[in-house]
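Continuing the batch. This is chain 6 of the set; chains 1 through 5 are on the previous pages. Same settings as before, nothing changed between runs. Recording input and output for traceability.
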Amino acid sequence: MNAVTPPGGEQSLGPTARRMILGSQLRRMREDAGITRQEAGYSIRGSESKISRLELGRVGFKERDVADLLTMYGMTDPGERQQFLDMVKESNEPGWWRRYGDLMPSWFNDLVGLEEAAARIQVWEPLYVTGLLQTEDYARAIMSHGRKDMVNEQIDRRVALRMRRQKMLSRPDAPRLWLVLDESVLHRPIGDREVLKAQIDHLLEMIQQPNISVQILPFDRSGYSADSAFSLLRFAEEELPNIAYTEYLTGAHYIDKRDEIERYSRALDMLAVDAETPDRSRQMLMKRRAEI
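Output for chain 6:
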């Protein structure tokens, strides 16, 4: 087996994606060698669950652990081993979002890294404009629960983090963002009248970019295909599985099982069919903006 080399645009891969690629390569090597997770865990003074987390790219790697696993899996070529160990170092490099580590729950870290690496991000949002397309004032209103007296330095930094996440949409190799938005979002009074109007203006501006599409799901077609928000992230690198992301009050789920991904993908297809076309959605945005 050849050591992993990230396909084209190596510099665009962040640490989260590198961990996932490295983990998937180690899983394949283990399976090819006929070694169980329990046996692999024992060899690095760990457990079966630790091997599972490593292979899913959910935790950082230690060079010593990877070196021991490579030996156990039969990789002895010095050059190939060094490629793996070099990638361990790269996967452990901090992403730009680490400066906001005190604001981000641990379960959110991976999402930011995965967004940076994704080729396509598909989002269904029934309640708010998705964070990747929010204005500062709209985001601040959500984070402060609509109470201006609650705005403080921490909330301002959380807004800054959200704005920084959005910069990837303007990269030369920007991911394709496709958003299906429930019509109710255009009527929900987040912030005040001017905040909502500015948010709709921002959506109208952003959909002029060739990599961003927005479809509005009308009131009379809401609630049939999916009742809660989720994102589906797709990657150009074949080593990376498609991932569905859903949040709940105290955490998030990252889903990569093929049958479950297929259900999320079908739900998005149904939402896209039920929603208005991008051009008709743009007209709905303009009409709603004029009404505010």
